[in-house]
Amino acid sequence: MALPKTEIIPCDNCYERESAGSCGSTRNCLACGDVEGKFDVLFSRVRAIQKKSGNFDLLLCVGNFFGSTPDAEWEEYKTGIKKAPIQTYVLGANNQETVKYFQDVDGCELAENITYLGRKGVFTGSSGLQIVYLSGTESLNEPVPGYSFSPKDVFSLRTMLWSTSQFKGVDILLTSPWPKYVGNFGNSSGEVDTKKCGSALISSLATGLKPRYHFAALEKTYYERLPYRNHIILQERAQHATRFIALANVGNPEKKKYLYAFSIVPMKLMDVAELVKQPPDVTENPYRKSVKEASIGEQIPAPEEDSACQFFFDLNEKQGRKRSSTGRDSKSSPHPKQPRKLPQPPGPCWFCLASPEVEKHLVVSIGTHCYLALAKGGLSDDHVLILPIGHYQSVVELSAEVVEEVEQYKATLRRFFKSQGKRCILFERNYKSHHLQLQVIPLPLSRCATDDIKDAFITQAQEQQIELLEIPEHSDIKQIAQPGAAYFYVELDTGEKLFHRIKKNFPLQFGREVLASEAILNIPDKSDWRQCQISKEEEETLARRFRKDFEPFDFTLDD
């Protein structure tokens, strides 16, 4: 039975949650990665999920539905001995070996409750949920194999949807390969190099169709990318965000996630303001430089970095000559090196020095790779932050030259605060933050000993069931945490370090809470920076005072 390009999902897909005559607007869906012939494993898992969480409306399978295993298991479903517990929609072949299972390129029923969507097309449910699908792997050669798609396929699919009046995007996009460059500006994709892996044609398709969810497989791993925006801020009207999810293979021994449950209200039924609401962790579009400049059949180039901004400026006329972007006196070398391109943020960033969002009146020192700024709502008047000038998320991701200058700032601040009868504590929280902020908090030597501070952190960690481990004094955080991993660490004035690997949730104000506690500074009302804000005029006064006091120690200034 061939499927037309647009099909109505019958109401008998609506289980106990909805009566057959009045389907609700929310669709409860499951998406699955490569099944590879493990039908019993998959459907047993689906039954268990439905028993625990209630019935789902449909199961969407991407990647290789059939594997190289014998057909005995499939025959039981094909002949009706066994039945899929949920309406299941699958993509077509990705290799010559499995082409034999998909006889009708326009889609057909493979077994009861299991439907092959077809080579490419749009599937629209009775609720208005719009699913776009593209089977196979990319091929730029003619003739195109039966398990591949061509630039023409992508062009025709995109054109068909764009021809619809007031096209805003689609609800779901199903492809087997990943889109190339999907990792740009996003969280780590693990072992998959998205600059080399994946399909540039699918990148183009995703850019044009703006799916709210995009599912893919084939790489035998799970990757849920941070959501990305589909508009250019301040230049285009706000649009909905896209979530890309790659799923692992069914029954994989590493127990990587292969099933993804989600609820979705069809776009056409949503209020515009609700639809375009941006998630707090949204990033720039990973393909933003591509499709507008490349034809549909060409490989899409990776986004280019903007050239390094010349944003080193005088904070005070009395602080010496303006420094060049190399961090040295412009007169010291007749042939200064060209500035290196800096890592760019995925969107607006409050801490990238070139960003208009930065509150530059808080900046108190600027080096070649890092800068120093007073903390907004600080625990004390001289609570400062060490921040990289370019966009780095954590200490773990810093380049060698940036690490070197961070260490130089740390040593300088220790000397500065020691001259004032204080010790300083440093901490970093790489969790729900997009730009590295190394907090530096000075504490009067008379207030407490280093051991008291260490005990306070360990005690409060235990109370909150946080495993805070002591790590060797001269150890490198990079040896413990991988790029992209969430963590919290404290560095005491003795060089001792305490480290916690964040696995799920973590109290955002933990570091401040410990230092503000009765055991240390005894200012518990200042544990949240938002409760400590002062006027801009007061901030400017504190910044001027800090610059003046710090000037004799500031290695960034000319002699």
Brief synopsis:
The protein is an alpha/beta fold and 559 residues long. The chain contains nine helices and 23 strands. Helix 3 runs parallel beside helix 4.
> How is the CATH topology of the largest domain named?
Purple Acid Phosphatase, chain A, domain 2
Low-pLDDT residue intervals, each spanning 5 or more residues: 1-23, 290-339
Biggest sheet record = 8 strands, antiparallel
Q: Going by CATH, what is the homologous superfamily of the largest domain?
A: Metallo-dependent phosphatases
Second-tier CATH architecture of the largest domain: 4-Layer Sandwich
- Give the N-terminus to C-terminus distance in angstroms: 83 Å
Q: Write down the domain tally.
A: 2
**Approximate shape:** elongated
Number of separate helices: 9
Mean pLDDT rating: 84
Q: Roughly how many Å is the radius of gyration?
A: 28 Å
Structural class, from helix and strand content? alpha/beta
Total strands: 23
- Strand numbers in spatial order across the main sheet: 16-17-18-20-19-22-23-21
The helicity comes to: 10-25%
CATH class of the largest domain: Alpha Beta
Strand content: 15-25%
Walk me through the topology.
Elements: E1 27-32, H1 39-53, E2 58-61, H2 72-78, E3 88-90, E4 108-111, E5 114-116, E6 120-124, E7 130-134, E8 137-138, E9 148-149, H3 151-162, E10 170-175, H4 200-209, E11 211-216, E12 223-224, E13 228-229, E14 241-246, E15 259-264, H5 272-275, E16 363-366, E17 370-374, E18 384-388, H6 400-418, E19 422-430, E20 438-444, H7 450-463, E21 469-471, E22 487-491, E23 497-501, H8 510-516, H9 536-550
Parallel strand pairs: 1-2, 2-3, 3-5, 7-10, 8-9, 10-11, 11-14
Antiparallel strand pairs: 1-15, 4-5, 6-7, 12-14, 13-14, 16-17, 17-18, 18-20, 19-20, 19-22, 21-23, 22-23
Domain Cwf19-like protein C-terminal: 464-556
Pfam family, one: CwfJ_C_1
GO molecular function, one term: RNA lariat debranching enzyme activator activity
